[in-house]
Every structure is written in structure tokens, then in C-alpha cells.
Amino acid sequence: MAYLTLNKTKLKTNFEFLKKLFDEKSISWGVVSKLLCGNRTFLEELINLGVREIHDSRISNLAMVKTINPDVQTVYIKPVSKRNVGKMVEFADVSLNSELDTIHWISEEAVLQKKKHKIIIMVETGDLREGVMGEQLVEFYSQIFQLPNIEVIGLGTNLNCLNGVMPSTDKLIQLSLYKQIIELKFNKKIPWVSAGTSVTIPLILNHQLPLGINHFRVGETLYFGLDLFEEKLIEGMKADVFELHAEIIEMQEKPLLPVGNLAANPQGEVAEIDTELYGKSSFRAILDIGLLDVDPKYLIPKDQSFEILGASSDMIIINLGENPAEYKVGDTLNFELKYMGALGLLNSDYVDKKVIS
């Protein structure tokens, strides 16, 4: 059976790299755990590192965090639906918000639960996902800062998640200025300016982060060590915290081209025929995992001598060429992962998950 591993040593390396980076800039940060899909074992590894603030977009995942360590500050990182406000207030200490009605519902629920709920107001800075328009921010804040059991602890923004708009020094200075305006107008302290996610980290590395930015929400760079501006590994970090291990369940020498009349496969694809391949063959392996678990385009073979040909719902087909590594049935092929590949695998109940050192 295919299985996914989390390398705790490499995860620690990446965590300590980021901790040092943020500590040097006096920046608070939390770890985004949504990639882990509520896996208790993997969440425990995060908390064992010393993580004391965990962000997620699924309430059940935050509930799991609270069962492991109720002292970890939990942050709900998308607008909450009305029917889930009660559960969100129960399991999230902080939430990201951009709707007045929603914050009123949260206030009412926090009163009922006798809790103080913290919120970060999300501000639109160009990517056109969630966020209050800048020109409406002062009026927005004026309607919520005195609500019972609500504490506004920050302004935040989200970039690159919908339209690919990248963070910039100018955009983040603008966010810091909004904080100053609100603090002066209302004589209120807003502790955090939450600059965003992993995509903003290169601004720190390149000494371009404005001084007012003091909070981050980090997932992808922790797990994959990536500079998301240039899509390359950050020096000193590890790319292979997660690996997929898939077993060969068939190994045969077969023609390179299909034989027969061609029509679309279940994915709607029609095979392309390269006439130069007629009469040629290669060793082909079938792996015990398929599209139900992961899209092959998010897999990076550790062994560069083979290529992924395609996949069906439960199997991935590999071209081994002349099979120089002499793979056989029962052997395992290993893959590094892109973010969406890891997400699919972690969300699959059909793939075992293990921690390794």
C-alpha cells in the first residue's frame, strides 16, 4: 500500500530556520496546519516543536489541536458561515473577518459562551479574495470595536491565493498605515499587522519588509522550504519534509503506443500518437495509487531516470525505459511533493501516514 511520510528532523530544520528569521525581526507567527487535514500524529509533531499558534480553515482540525494541547492559540483563517459560528467560537481563539454581520454573530455567540473572541480584520489589497475595501475600513472598525466579547487584535491581508497578486513593500506599507490611522482616530491599540502567508517571506529575506509588519501565517514554506517568488528552495531549508512511497504492483515490457481505436479516457483525454514510437517498447510499472488520491502533476520522482505517463482512478503508470535500476514488482518508488499533491494525499483515507526521523 502507498504511504506518506513526514520527516520530523527535516520539519524541525525548517521550523528552526523560520523561528530564527522571525525572532530576529521581532515578528510573531503562527503555523497554518490545513495541509495536515487534522492528522493527529502530524499535528502532535508541530506542537512538539514548540508551536503555540496554529491556523486552519477547518473547525474540526482546530478542535483536534485543542484535544492535543488546549493552550495552543487556534486561529480560524477564512470567513465563517453563519451556521458554524457557534463551533468556531468554541474551538478558535482568533478568527479572520471581513463581514459586519458575521462579527455581530460572533459577538453574540462569544457572550453566550462567556468567551473573549479575538479577530483580525482582513483588508483588500488587490488579490480580490476576502477583505474590506481600504476606503471603508475606518467605518467598518467604528461599528465593531465596542461589540461585547470581541477584541480586535490585528489587521491582515491575503495575497497570491486567487489572482496571483504578489505582495510588495508598497502594499504592506499601506496596510501599516491603515493601522496607524485607526489607532489615532479611535485611541485604540491594534497589536498585529498580519502581512500574509509564505509568499511574503522573500520580502524578509531581501530586506524589503516594512517595519510595521509584525505577524505572519506560515504553511507552505515550513513544509516545503520554498521561496514562492522564485519557486526555488531557500538555502538552509528542506524541500522533502513529505515523501510519497508507492509500490510497484505490475512490471511488464509493453509497447510505447496503445493498440486499437482511440477514444477519450474517463478523464476526457485522448492519447496522442507519435508515429516515431511505432514498434518500440519499454518497461512500464503500475503503482498502487491513483487520481483518487493525488494528481501525478504534483509528484516529483526522486529517481529522475523514469517518467510518469498517466493515471487512472487507482493506478499511476510509469515509463522505466530500459529499467536501469532493475526495479521489480514489490519495490517502492519515492516522490517529493508539490503542495497540492501533499494536500490530496493527506486528505485521502486510503494512504497511510507515518512519521520518520
Which features characterize this protein?
357 residues; alpha/beta; 8-stranded mixed sheet; 18 strands; elongated
Walkthrough of the structure:
The protein has 357 residues and is an alpha/beta fold. The chain has ten helices and 18 strands. The strands form three sheets. Strands 1, 12, 13, 14, 15, 16, 17 and 18 form an eight-stranded mixed β-sheet that branches. Strands 2-3-4-5-6-7-8-9 form an eight-stranded parallel β-barrel, surrounded by four helices. Strand 2, helix 2 (40-48) and strand 3 (53-56) form a beta-alpha-beta unit. Helix 3 (59-68) runs parallel beside helix 4 and helix 4 (85-91) crosses helix 5. The longest helix is centred in the middle third of the chain and has 18 residues, at 169-186. The radius of gyration is 24 Å and the shape is elongated. The two termini are 21 Å apart. The model has no long low-confidence stretch (mean pLDDT 95).
Short summary:
By secondary structure, the chain is an alpha/beta fold. The chain is 28% helix and 26% strand. Strands 1, 12, 13, 14, 15, 16, 17 and 18 form an eight-stranded mixed sheet that branches. It has an eight-stranded parallel barrel with strand order 2-3-4-5-6-7-8-9, surrounded by four helices. It has a two-stranded antiparallel ribbon with strand order 10-11.
Write the layout of secondary structure elements.
Elements: E1 3-7, H1 8-24, E2 28-32, H2 40-48, E3 53-56, H3 59-68, E4 73-76, H4 85-91, E5 94-97, H5 100-113, E6 117-122, H6 137-142, E7 150-156, H7 169-186, E8 192-196, H8 201-205, E9 215-218, H9 220-224, E10 226-227, E11 232-233, E12 242-255, E13 281-287, E14 299-301, E15 307-311, E16 316-321, E17 332-337, H10 339-346, E18 352-356
Parallel strand pairs: 1-18, 2-3, 2-9, 3-4, 4-5, 5-6, 6-7, 7-8, 8-9
Antiparallel strand pairs: 1-12, 10-11, 12-13, 12-17, 13-16, 14-17, 15-16
